[in-house]
Amino acid sequence: MAANIKVEVCDSAEAVASMAAAKFADLVRAKANAVIGLATGSTPEQTYAELAKMHRQQDLSFAAVTAFNLDEYWGLDGDHDQSYRHFMNSNLFDHIDIRPWNTHVLNGKAVNPALECAGFEAKILSVGGIDMWLLGIGPNGHIAFNEPGSPVDSRTRLVNLTQTTIDANSDGRFFKDASEVPRCALSAGIGTIREARSLVLLATGSKKADAIAAAVDGPFSPDCPSSMLQDHPDCTFIVDAEAASGLKR
Ligand code: PGA
User: Which atom, in ligand 1's list, is nearest to the CA of 208?
Assistant: First the structure.
């Protein structure tokens, strides 16, 4: 399949963050009640800092915006310092004027995970779908916690994390030790993500080069979940030169 993915190669991680933040700021300026999808991890931290700066210095308002996050660790309370709810509050939501009730992060302590996931999907539908979803990518090509083998039509659900993902998140940036990393998560599915009208995936550093090459130039396959964005009508990868180093071009 000829990949539709548009690839923007930037000189630095800072330039990746500026371009990504500009895309979301343009959307919110054009559509005050935009529905945005967000991601956690190290890669989007700078993008969130840029958006918070635009809010402070350029009156960029999120007062009518609704946000949905990709995933949450199963078993972690939103108050846990490694929960994605905590990450989103401290990296973005606490620094902008988004209304807390318009921020949707899956509840990692939900009594009934299937109901929690169905409710998340229903909320996305009830606000008319997601205008633009920010994504990261794992070294194994995962998007959200859709690990290799995830079906193209998967929906929000409880999933197991692979050892690669557990190791990537216990390298000292987040959890100190692999034993502390939860083994499961609630994650939006590939099908859920593909329904967003626009997708923006960020990657920086050489550790992501193989995954970016497989996603853009490899076959459309569940073996590399991000390759299943190849037929999306509006998907942009914003990467630095290191992450782009494996691309054929
Ligand atoms: P990272 O995570 O931004 O921390 O590298 C990305 C991901 O695993 O999706």
Answer: 5
